[in-house]
Write a structure and sequence with these properties.
The protein is mainly beta and 372 residues long. The chain has strands at 2-4, 13-19, 51-58, 80-82, 85-90, 95-100, 106-111, 121-123, 126-130, 135-140, 146-151, 161-164, 167-170, 176-181, 184-189, 198-203, 209-213, 219-223, 229-232, 238-239, 241-243, 246-251, 254-260, 266-269, 280-282, 286-289, 293-296, 344-346, 349-354, 357-362, 367-371.
């Protein structure tokens, strides 16, 4: 674990910065998709014209799961910006690098003991990143020096590693990407429920653990595929996000779960037939999951589905005679293109594009409000 200054980063991908003329002051982009709800929008206005100011060439990202699109949380570089510094994580090197926004010059580079697969969080002169080595790191933004680190696994677990995704990683890699809200950093460690999973909230200033929920490795009586009621566990893979008093935890190819932000207690975890995804974003009312899932934040149930409370008569698995009592969604319901976890979200509107067409959806009534 060290910070190294002045290294060059060469490869085949181009990282570019565009400006209007010279260097224009702009708002920060402190985390993936800008904010804790991952809405992908900023109050900053783009200039009328953009001009290329500088570029840097970076090697292609080495994905954890290259053959599973719903687990492509690390498919590209995701820069964040604070002041006049760009911070960039690299799973290839297990590093976080800082670049000057005016010149593109590398200021420093910090190495963890495993791949850093998620964009860092930048706040108040600090940079936070999680690694497959099982730790959340807090770095000084000015020079990359280590301020503190927190292990994701419970203290009574031995610090063990094994081969995973072609690298030596912890038994409890940080695959729940960190998110910042109200002075707290949230992250998750562990992806195998049988080996233990933890969702952790730490004070952003000193790293003191506010709460740790390591009971989510076993959640009983959960409705899963084919409407089977079964014991399941979290497998956090994706960027954590905040929606009001809820902390949403993406679970890779499964649907996300919600915890209480103040206590870490589980609020809901609904599965059913729908395919989950590592990409989850949220408005005040809904969470978008991958390409086709939209769930209500109130209860985690899918918008427009056939969810109902069937009580003790609900079948514990597929039963054609009790089809009408199934609690899970049976048929596809969202037929609108470009309205998904990749959309840019603003209050009651989702913006997206598909096949060269730009769409804007009014979320309260899902009507098409703009088409061109």
């Amino acid at each position: 674990m060290r910070a190294k200054h002045g290294q060059k980063c060469l490869g085949s991908l181009i990282f570019a910065v565009f400006v209007l003329s010279g260097i224009c002051p702009a708002a920060d982009w402190p985390m993936w998709r800008h904010d804790a709800s991952r809405r992908g929008t900023s109050p900053e206005n783009l200039p009328q014209e953009l001009h290329l100011h500088w570029t840097r060439k970076l090697p292609p990202v080495q994905l954890a799961w290259p053959n599973e699109p719903r687990l492509h949380f690390d498919s590209s570089y995701e820069p964040v910006v604070m002041g006049k510094t760009i911070f960039l994580a690299s799973p290839n090197h297990g590093s976080v690098s800082a670049f000057d926004t005016e010149t593109g010059q590398e200021r420093w580079r910090f190495y963890a003991e495993g791949p850093v697969r998620f964009a860092p969080v930048a706040w108040d002169g600090k940079v936070y990143c999680g690694s497959d080595d099982g730790f959340l790191y807090c770095l000084r933004a000015s020079d990359g020096s280590l301020l503190w680190k927190v292990r994701g696994a419970p203290a009574d677990r031995p610090d063990r590693g094994h081969l995973g995704n072609g690298r030596l990683v912890s038994f409890w890699p940080v695959r729940g990407g960190p998110v910042f809200a109200d002075g707290v950093i949230y992250f998750a460690a562990g992806i195998w429920p049988t080996m233990g999973v933890s969702v952790v909230a730490v004070d952003a200033q000193d790293g003191k653990v506010r709460w740790r929920n390591d009971r989510v490795q076993l959640v009983d009586n959960t409705r899963i595929d084919h409407n089977l009621i079964h014991d399941v566990g979290f497998s956090p893979q994706g960027y954590l996000l905040v929606a009001g008093n809820k902390l949403l935890v993406p679970n890779g190819r499964s649907m996300p779960a919600a915890l209480d932000r103040e206590t870490g207690h589980l609020l809901w975890y609904c599965q059913g037939y729908r395919n989950g995804d590592c990409r989850v974003t949220a408005t005040d009312t809904y969470a978008f999951v991958g390409e086709s899932g939209v769930v209500r934040l109130e209860d985690g149930r899918e918008v427009g589905s056939r969810w109902k409370h069937a009580g003790p008569d609900a079948p514990r698995a597929f039963d054609a005679r009790k089809f009408h009592l199934f609690e899970g969604p049976i048929l596809p319901y969202k037929l609108f293109p470009a309205c998904n976890a990749r959309s840019a979200l603003q209050e009651t509107t989702a913006y997206g594009s598909q096949a060269g067409i730009f769409y804007a959806y009014q979320l309260h009534n899902t009507s098409l409000t703009e088409y061109e």
